[in-house]
Write a structure and sequence with these properties.
It contains 13 helices and 10 strands. It is α/β, with parallel strands linked by helices. It has 2 domains: 3-172, Rossmann fold, CATH 3.40.50.720; 175-309, N-(1-d-carboxylethyl)-l-norvaline Dehydrogenase, domain 2 (Orthogonal Bundle). The chain is globular and about 55 Å long. The termini are far apart.
Length: 311
């Protein structure tokens, strides 16, 4: 590819930039934090969000979105609550937009792809899968899914974006992949609670499986497909996020188990905290996710949570 654009130069956006620098002549990242822009352009390192990773020389950071005008594809790699602002950096054009954000559109009570579609005329795709930033930025093997209604274009993009150690597999279910990406972060908070309470691997496995079953029903209520939850972009992402304390979501759950609370948490909030706000708006009943929502926001105690999910 000639040029890839990315909105968002945080941890994951930077990792994607390094990942795709292997398949594109140039990667342009629009980032409004001048400290990050200067760090990357001067030292080839995002010392703020991804320190210690040496970035390729064909990666350029800027605060000027006009650099996207001749990009072949533009990625939105910002937290879910900043997707609306990120769309302001994207030209309304035939350039495909790939959504990497995990969460829901809380104001409109819908999917992020619907929010983006209401703001841009560009064709929209969704990228999701088990890919920690610290790993893919170091070229460790990973595989993700790219979903889009235009499967021919989705397949073409998947082939162009794939490299030796980063494989992109196309699927059609843009709804199911988004629901999986949003809810796996919520489920990981519950898994972190179980880990913090030393309930064992068997309990965690049961919890994850039952959580995936609920996620599947929720996706179907939006029009998604159950088969998506056998794909690496859904099931693989659940396994990764719910079994490693590298996951900020799982770490937050452990923090709750250790006696912490949402009000006591210092630092950036895990995305699952925001996604959980959507749970009361679900179109079907969900025992596990309702209980996770309640324990996050203090409606029930950690002890009540554990007892209720295993009763």
């Amino acid at each position: 590819m000639r040029k890839i654009g990315i909105v968002g130069g945080g941890c994951y956006g930077t990792a994607l930039a390094e990942c795709f620098s292997r398949v594109s002549e140039k990667v342009v990242v629009v980032e409004k934090n001048s400290q990050i822009v200067d760090s990357v352009n001067q030292n080839h390192e995002n010392s703020v969000s991804l320190p210690g990773v040496v970035l390729s020389e064909n990666i350029v950071y800027t605060d000027d979105e006009s650099n996207f005008d001749d990009a072949e594809v533009i990625f939105l790699a910002v937290p879910a609550n900043f997707v609306k602002q990120a769309c302001e950096c994207v030209p309304n054009s035939e350039i495909p937009v790939i959504l990497c954000s995990k969460g829901f559109a809380l104001e409109s009570k819908g999917l992020l792809s619907d929010l983006v579609a209401g703001l841009l005329s560009n064709e929209i795709f969704v990228l999701s899968g088990p890919s920690f930033a610290a790993e893919i930025s170091r070229n460790l093997p990973a595989k993700v899914n790219l979903a889009g209604k235009n499967f021919a274009k989705c397949s073409e993009l998947s082939e162009k974006l794939s490299s030796k150690n980063f494989k992109v597999e196309p699927i059609e279910d843009i709804i199911g992949l988004q629901v999986a990406g949003a809810l796996k972060n919520v489920l990981a908070i519950g898994c972190g609670i179980l880990h913090g309470k030393n309930l064992g691997q068997g309990a965690a496995a049961r919890f994850m499986v039952e959580g995936v079953l609920e996620m599947t029903k929720i996706a179907e209520s939006f029009g998604g497909r159950a088969e998506t939850f056998t794909k690496v972009g859904a099931l693989g992402d659940v396994i990764l996020t719910c079994s490693s304390l590298q996951s900020r979501n799982m770490s937050f759950g452990k923090f709750l188990a250790d006696g912490g609370s949402l009000q006591m948490w210092n630092g950036a909030l895990a995305e699952g905290v925001f996604s959980a706000k959507f749970i009361p708006n679900l179109r079907c009943s969900s025992k596990i996710f309702t209980k996770i929502y309640q324990v996050i926001y203090g409606d029930i105690t950690v002890e009540e949570f554990v007892e209720s999910v295993f009763e």
